[in-house]
Amino acid sequence: MAQFIALIHKDADSDYGVHFPDLPGLATAGATLDEARAFAEEALALHLEGLAEDGEPVPEPSSLETVMTDPDNRDGVAILVRAEVRSRAVRVNITLPEDALRDIDSYAEAHGYTRSGFLAQAAKKLMQSA
């Protein structure tokens, strides 16, 4: 199980944003703190899977002290996010209406997802509610 420090930020009139100082470019968001934390776990797991698939090393997690010495991180609330690296991702080819794909991509980008991450999360939620 991997665990990394994530920082939660909240600006007025925005969702709770989450980013990982040790993993540049990895960010997500949630409407509530619980949702932000859950999405952070999902985003971390997907990111680590992607690194593994690409043959990239997983960086060593920084200590809380190291993360918080960076002045850019001091306005965030630090949380520890754990993620299990799941089975290897498999590339699939699907067909979607162009407008649906545009809406999916727009929503995913606005909420800190990749297209694949969003579709996987949406499918899981639908299956759990059935």
TrEMBL record:
- CDD domains, from UniProt? RHH_NikR_HicB-like (cd22231)
State what protein this is by name: CopG family transcriptional regulator
Enumerate the InterPro entries for this protein: HicB-like, Ribbon_hlx_hlx, TA_system_antitoxin, TTHA1013/TTHA0281-like
Q: Can you cite a GO biological process for this protein?
A: regulation of DNA-templated transcription
Domain HicB-like antitoxin of toxin-antitoxin system: start-end pairs: 4-123
* Record-linked Pfam families: HicB_lk_antitox
Q: Where are the transmembrane segments?
A: none
